[in-house]
Write a structure and sequence with these properties.
With 418 residues, the protein is of the alpha/beta class. The chain has 2 domains: 1-40; 83-416, Aldolase class I (TIM Barrel, Alpha-Beta Barrel). 39% of the residues lie in helices and 11% in strands. The chain has 15 helices and 12 strands. The chain has helices spanning 4-20, 31-39, 57-63, 66-73, 80-87, 135-146, 160-167, 181-193, 212-219, 251-254, 270-278, 292-300, 326-333, 348-356, 366-398; strands spanning 92-94, 109-111, 114-116, 120-122, 151-152, 172-175, 198-202, 283-287, 305-308, 338-342, 361-364, 411-413. The strands form 3 sheets. An 8-stranded parallel beta sheet has the order 4-11-10-9-8-7-6-5. The chain has a two-stranded antiparallel sheet with strand order 1-12. Helix 7 links the parallel strand 5 (151-152) and strand 6 (172-175). The model has no long low-confidence stretch (mean pLDDT 90).
Length: 418
């Protein structure tokens, strides 16, 4: 089949060449082919050339091996929920107010007693070194430069200690549980020892995930990746579950201290959540909550916050956008914890809508990894700058001079119209 990237680039160059030839009228080509080729923008050559975060996506795709791109791009099943996350943003319109003094805008948020200059959270994405040699270190340095919360994945290719050192302040730690409570507890204690203020227990992949896009890209990746993957096939994250066959590049999973196993029975339930809550003084959040009922149960268990998340459309294929879940989760939390939402957020207006619906902050995953894969730390910083700038612009347009002033009065739900 060849390389999907090179085939696409070659086809585009060929069509552009045809479009420039005087023989074009004699070639009975579909007009849509020519329009797409002529309108497709050139790839940016530097972060400063980007107009929006989407400009980084094709650069990342061109630079990454097929299987690595597939891991980043995949959703679940036919990627329907991944698309729904983006399409859900169009459900909401904004109500703009005029003649407000917007010469000074305060974009800071207070989360667990600490003030951050932006409500944009750097969400956990595994295996950052699959996208750039510096991996999570480059992301941590960008987080340090811009002041964003950074959440480090259990399957990160950098240790929690090294990521926190690069950030200059401890990261939050995202937790995938182990079938051995002894090992889960070791990860919790390690995060505590590293100074992590919060642990984020992810629950939306407990049933695994069917990642067809990843599989398709992996099939055209003929590299021998024995240095990173057992068996040599470059297929990370195929099942959506933590793969124990080879954790050489995952410090959180490769450095357990031998001890008496405490095997789990079945998959985690709310009793496990209570045990987790009782085992640590860190703030505990649950990632993957999309209903009012589960939000209420989390609060009853003393959980400090939730991430409204479907894993960027790569967990279940529910077809429901996370932004459409925010209002009911906020109603379930009822001010008793923070609410962070992720899934398809690409614009400042997207973030504004979520904040207006009651979210405390907004998480991003793929956009900063596009930046990382394209230009390393500078790419990540630019992605964060663009989102910050866009959010600031829409705040000015709406006359909201602080994050606290972004309320549901500024958003209209198309589906609620009579």
């Amino acid at each position: 089949m060849g390389n999907l990237h090179s085939n696409h680039d070659s086809r585009r160059r060929f069509i552009r060449l045809l479009a420039a030839t005087p023989l074009l009228p004699q070639l009975d080509l579909p007009r849509s082919w020519l329009q797409a080729a002529l309108q497709e923008r050139e790839l940016i050559g530097a972060p400063s050339e980007a107009l929006n975060v989407f400009d980084f996506e094709p650069v990342a795709k061109k630079k990454l091996p097929p299987a690595h791109w597939g891991y980043l791009a995949t959703g679940s099943d036919d990627d329907g929920t991944l698309r729904a996350n983006r399409e859900g943003m169009t459900r909401y319109q904004l109500r703009m107010r005029r003649l407000v003094d917007v010469s000074k805008i305060d974009m800071s948020v207070n989360i667990f007693g600490k003030t951050y200059p932006t409500p944009i959270v750097i969400n956990p994405v595994g295996s950052n070194k699959a996208f750039h040699p510096e991996g999570e270190i480059a992301v941590a340095r960008a987080s340090r430069a811009k002041g964003n919360v950074q959440v480090l994945s259990t399957v990160a290719t950098t240790s929690v200690e090294d990521a926190s050192a690069a950030r200059g302040d401890p990261v939050w730690f995202q937790l995938y549980h182990r079938q051995d409570w002894n090992q889960t507890l070791q990860m919790i204690r390690r995060a505590e020892h590293a100074g992590c203020p919060a642990i984020v227990f992810t629950v939306d992949l407990l049933g695994g995930s069917n990642r067809e896009t990843l599989e398709r890209y992996a099939r055209v990746d003929s590299r021998d990746c024995s240095q990173c993957h057992s068996g040599g096939a470059p297929v990370p994250g195929r099942s959506g579950r933590v793969d124990d066959r080879d954790n050489r590049r995952k410090p959180a999973l490769a450095e357990f201290v031998p001890g008496t196993p405490i095997p789990e029975v079945g998959t985690p339930t709310w009793e496990f959540v209570q045990r987790l809550r009782d085992s640590t003084k860190m703030k505990v959040l649950i990632k993957g909550i999309v209903t009012k009922e589960d939000a209420e149960l989390a609060m009853r268990r003393g959980i400090d916050g939730v991430f409204v998340s479907n894993h960027g459309g790569r967990a279940e294929d529910s077809g429901r956008a996370t932004i459409e879940c925010v209002s009911e989760v906020v109603a379930g939390v009822r001010g008793r914890g923070v609410v962070i939402v992720d899934g398809g957020f690409r614009r400042g207006t997207d973030a504004f809508k979520a904040l207006a619906l009651g979210a405390t902050a907004v998480g991003i995953g793929r956009p900063y990894v596009w930046g990382l894969a394209s230009f390393g730390q500078q790419g990540v910083e630019t992605v964060l700058d663009i989102l910050h700038r866009e959010l600031q612009t829409v705040m000015k347009q709406a006359g909201t001079t602080s994050i606290a002033k972004i309320t549901n009065e500024y958003v209209i739900d198309r589906n609620a119209r009579s």
